[in-house]
Amino acid sequence: MTKIIKNMGRIEWTYFALSVILVICQVYFDLKVPDYMANITILVKTPGSPLSDIWLSGIKMLLCAITAMLITFLSDLVTSKLAATFSLNLRAKVFGKINQFSLEEIDNFSVSSLITRSTNDIATIQRFVAGGLNQLVKAPITVAIALTKISGKHWQWSTLTCVCVFVIICVIGYVVKYAHPRFRKMQVLTDELNKATRENLTGIRVVKAYNASKYQEDKFAKANNNLTDNAMQAHHAMAIMQPTMKFLNNGLTIGIYLTGAYIISTLGYNDALVTFSEMVVFSTYASKILQAFMSLNMVFNQMPRAGVCAERVNEVLEQPLSILDGDKEEGTEKGTIEFRDVSFTYPGASSPALNKISFSGKKGETIAFIGATGSGKTTLVNLVMRFYDTSSGEILIDGINVKDYKLKSLRSKIGYAPQRAILMTGSVESNIAYGDSRNGERDQEAIRKAIEIAQAKDFVENMPDSYQGAIARGGANVSGGQKQRLSIARAIYRQPEFYIFDDAFSALDYKTDRALRNALKEETSGVTTLIVAQRIGTIRDADKIIVLDEGGIVGMGTHNELMSSCKTYQEIAYTQLSKEELA
Q: Which of 22, 322, 388, 488 is the most buried (most CB within 10 A)?
C-alpha cells in the first residue's frame, strides 16, 4: 500500500496534510471531554461547590464535543476529496501506462485483468482512502494521548487495559494473516469472472448459434461460485473482529469499576473521592483506547483487499516497457522499407513465428504477402508497426531502424487497416479522422475523398445524418464489409508514406475489391504499400509478392514469376482461380 501512496501528487499531499491536522484537532477536543467530566464529578461530590462552576465545566465540555463534531465533519469532507482526487489521477496514470504497453505486455496481463485493475481495484483503493485513512491517523494519536493521560494511575487498571490491548492485537494479527491471501485470491477470481462474462458477450453470436447458453452459464457459475466461496472464507475470518472488540470493551469497563470499587472501599472520604474521579476518567480514556482499535475494525476489513488491489495496480504502473521510444523523427530516405534477417518468437512459444526474413521495397512499390494461415503474415506487419519488437535482425523504414524512431513519428508515417476492422463510438467523420487533424480541425474535403476512394461513399451518404451518422460501439450498426471500407478510408485520410493493409479486403466482394484497389492506385501513387491477403486476385498486380510458409520465405517475385517458380504459390492460385483466369 505504501508504494501506491507514492503516486500522490502535490494536491493530494496537501489534502492529506490538512486531514492530519484536522484529525489531531478533533482528537484533542474529543479527549478534553473526560477532563471536564472529572472536574464535574469532583464538584458534585464536594460539599459547597458553586453551581456556576458546575455549569461552566459543563458548557466547556459541550463546546469541546460540538467542536470535535464539526472538525470530524470537515475532516471527512477533506478525506473524501483526497480519495476522489487520488483515484482520478491514479486511473489516468494506469490508463496512460496501458496505452504504452506492447501487445506482449497486454497478453501477459490479459485484457479482462487490465479492465479489473483499472476500475474495480482502484475503486477499492478509493473506498479505503475515504473510509480508513482518517482512522489510521486518528487511532494511534488517540491511543498515545490517552495513555499519557492515564499513565501513573492504579496498576490494576493499567494491567487490565494492557491485557485487552494485547488480545486485540493478537486477534487483528490472526485475521490479517488469514484473510490477506484470500483477498488476494479474490481479485484473481474477479478477473476470471470478468473473463467469463466478457467471453460470453463478445462471442454471443457463436453461443446462440451453437445453443451453448447452458455451457456458458455453467462456466460462469463455476467462476461465480469460486469467487463467492473464497469471499465467504475471508469474511468469516473478519466476522470475529467486531464481537471480540465489543466484548473486550465492555469487559474492561466492568473490570475497572470492580477493581475501583474494591480500592475505594479501603480509602477515606477525600482519597475515595479523588480515586472515584480518577476511575471515571480512567474508564473513559481506556474506553477511548479500545474504541480506537474498534474503529480500526472497518480499516482492517478493507485493508487486506485494498492492499492486494494496490499491489495489482502497482504491477501495471511498474511494468517495464518492452517497446521503448527512440530519438529519431525522420529517416535518411523516403518511402523505403527493408527487412534484414528478421526473426521473431512469441513469448513462451517453442518455435519462431518468423525466421530469417529479408526483403526490401522502394518508394511507391506495392509489396504483398500471402501464405497459409499461421505462416506469419500478420506477425510481419505487426513488427513494422512495433506492436512487437524483433527477436533478432533489423527492420529499416526510410533507412532508419524502427527501434530508433520515436513511436509517434514512426506510426505517423503509416496508414494502417487491421485484419479485424475496428470502429470507435462516434460518427463516421470522427472515425475517419481518428487520431489525426489538420491544423487542429478535421479536413472535411479529405474525409470525403478518403471515403470515396474506399468505395464507401454510397452507403455513407445513405446513412441518417450522412457523414455525421452515428457509429455504434464496435461498429455494430454497419456490416463487416462497410467496417472494412471505413477502416481503409481512415488509413487513406492520414495521407501517409506507407500503407499497411492486413487482410483488409477480405470482407469485400470481388467487384468492390477491384474498384477500391484501382482507385487507391490512382490516388496514392508514390506511397509504399504492404498488403496481407488471402486472395490471389487482390495481390496479383503487386510489384513484389512474398510467399510465406511456416515463418519463412518460400517465394518472392511478381505473379507471373511465382507461377513459374513457386510451388506453394501455384497451389494457392489453382485453388482460387481457373486456368483461364490465370492465363
A: 488
